[in-house]
Design goal:
471 residues, Rossmann fold, seven-stranded mixed beta sheet, 21 helices, 40% helix, 20% strand
């Protein structure tokens, strides 16, 4: 909107093609989408427009454009784009190439900033995607003949678990409110939205507004839960700092797609959230070790909000896990969310693995008699356990599915140098995602690509300890 507002003032001749299909990822919401939908569904206007065009040559049709546009206003109402100084043409059938070519020729040399509205059907050409465009927005492997996605039997996604758990909590606490930015399906909140529509807020692709809205709810005594993908939460960074953290408001951020997201591609990798959140005062960051841990953390934070105050982020991956959602919800319990977990007790070498990565290293830790710590809280650090690790081990490796620069390992290194270097002699190494953008691939492929698979972790630790090879 800020850019559109400046177009006329800059004397621009820009041509904007507005593809309107009634969808972003999920169904569109908000005033602008309603305006476009009115235009889309105005069959009277579209029918009259087509009849006007038939039998008229191009020159006459162009000269009569003012009559047609006046007709549009009369039937539909004032045009938003025209009101801010942009000439608005259309709608045009986006699946009719001849009509598109004609419209493009018409607006190409128009001496003013111009918007051409093109109507399309999301998923056009494939029956199953037309029927369920949200599901087919970004896909993993599926059978093209049946439209059925490949998913191992007996598994659930972290997004499904989040939505199911939050719905259960909300059924017992009417102060819980779920918010998202055009992602009710992707974040697992569709069930919540159906069961508690009055406590579900979807503001469209407006992450900044969603975060500020949540802050307002927190000041009124509600328990807002903001579910946004890690990469999209970056858009609301200013609001997180000023509207939430500065006021130390009780907003829970459910950060989906944290870490490597696989087939969503390089724009969606959630590898920066630890770095950009942990430097914010009052912010706390939790990293559950598995699905049960995620459910327990959600339950604990929301049930005991008076104990765990201020903004809290819980980050979890785009991944599936074997298990049963009903069984997990049936075993939910209050936990100590900011305490790390000793998974394997060894000697000399300790691995501090963040979140769901930790259990990937169980076998190598047992085989080599290494200590393995499941890091459930990135901020604050579990200082009691951390000091014990420094006291009893010669080598400490931090491992995280996030950027090394500004990440968890950097926090541990800083803590060691500041408080423990004079007390304990320990060699510390940080393992994470290096200073580069990660390409497209499956999650399994990308874990190996960045060197976080258990085979590579075992090799680099042995090389470093035995030969002094730096990582």
């Amino acid at each position: 909107l800020e850019a559109l507002n400046q177009v006329k003032a800059q004397d621009s001749k820009i041509k904007i093609i507005l593809n309107s299909n009634g969808m972003s990822i999920s169904k569109n919401v908000g005033g602008l989408s309603q305006l476009l939908e009115t235009l889309r569904t105005s069959k009277i206007y579209i029918t009259i427009k087509e009849k006007l065009k038939k039998g008229l040559n191009e020159a006459v049709e162009f000269e009569l454009k003012k009559i047609r546009e006046a007709l549009k206003v009369a039937l539909i109402g004032e045009d938003f784009f025209e009101s801010i100084g942009l000439k608005h043409f259309g709608p045009v059938d986006g699946h009719d190439l001849r009509s598109l070519e004609e419209a493009f020729k018409q607006v190409k040399d128009y001496p003013y900033p111009t918007v051409l509205t093109v109507f399309t059907i999301k998923g056009k050409g494939y029956h199953f995607s037309e029927q369920n465009p949200t599901k087919f927005h970004g896909v993993d492997k599926f059978d093209p003949d049946s439209g059925i996605f490949e998913k191992p039997d007996g598994t659930y996604s972290y997004s499904e678990l989040f939505g199911t758990t939050l719905t259960k909590i909300a059924s017992q606490d009417d102060r819980v409110v779920a918010l998202t930015a055009a992602m009710p399906d992707g974040t697992g909140l569709s069930k919540f939205a159906k069961q508690f529509p009055e406590r579900f807020v979807d503001l469209g692709i407006t992450e900044q507004s969603v975060v500020t809205y949540a802050g307002g709810l927190a000041t009124m005594g509600f328990k807002p839960v903001v579910a946004i993908y890690s990469t999209f939460l970056q858009r609301a960074y200013d609001q997180i700092i000023h509207d939430i953290a500065l006021q130390n408001l009780d907003v829970l951020f459910a950060i989906d797609r944290a870490g490597l997201v696989g087939t969503d591609g390089p724009t969606h990798h959630g590898v920066f959230d630890i770095a950009y959140l942990k430097l914010i005062p009052n912010m706390k960051i939790l990293t559950p070790l598995d699905g049960q841990d995620l459910a327990n953390m959600l339950w604990t934070v929301l049930k005991e909000r008076g104990k765990y105050r201020g903004p809290i982020a819980i980050r979890y991956p785009r991944d599936v896990e074997f298990g049963n959602l009903e069984e997990i919800c049936g075993k939910i319990e209050i936990v100590e969310p900011f305490k790390w977990q000793l998974l394997v007790e060894g000697k000399e070498i300790a691995l501090l693995a963040v979140g769901v990565l930790a259990k990937k290293y169980l076998d190598i830790a047992k085989a080599n008699a290494w200590t393995l710590i499941g890091v459930r809280s990135v901020k604050p650090l579990d200082e009691e356990m951390l000091e014990k690790i420094f006291e009893t081990h010669k080598y400490v490796f931090t491992i995280e599915e996030g950027a090394e620069l500004g990440g968890f390992g950097e926090s541990v290194a800083t803590k060691y140098l500041k408080d423990y270097a004079d007390k304990y002699e320990c060699r510390l190494q940080v393992v994470g995602i290096r200073d580069e953008f990660i390409p497209h691939g499956t999650r399994y492929e990308l874990i190996k690509y960045v060197g976080l698979d258990s085979t590579n972790i075992e090799q680099i630790i042995k090389k470093y300890v035995m030969k002094g090879v730096r990582l």
